Amino acid sequence: MVEMKHAFKWALAGVVLCWLSPLWADVLLDFSVVLPPAVDKHKVVQPVVQWLVRADAPGYCQQIKEHDGFAVWQEGCVYWTSTPSTCSIVTTGRTTHSQVGRLFLLCLTAGEPT
Questions:
Q1: Are 28 and 70 in contact (CB under 8 A)?
Q2: Which end of the chain, N or C, is surrounded by fewer C-beta atoms within 10 Å?
Q3: pTM exceeds 0.90, yes or no
Q4: Model confidence over 104-113: pLDDT tens digits?
Q5: d(CA 104, CA 3)
């Protein structure tokens, strides 16, 4: 009886680990600490933000001509203008809050790491 309880616990632990393992493999899940830049470090100030979904997000940003710059992060990208102050975040249909947030921070700093 005791061995069966231990076997059940190990089997349950195995099922849980198998269920969670895709989360570890997903490159879009990013739990690292992010420190937003100080307001005086913003290169794009109080932008109007637009979010687009495209199958090839980085390729889409590269083809846009009317921007001051763009940056690529994982499967998404962002392009910006200073006048008027805008950020256009472009992701694939498969995205996370983390990715959108990182792209927004790249816009605020005009692509410079924080």
A1: no
A2: N
A3: no
A4: 999 999 998 7
A5: 53
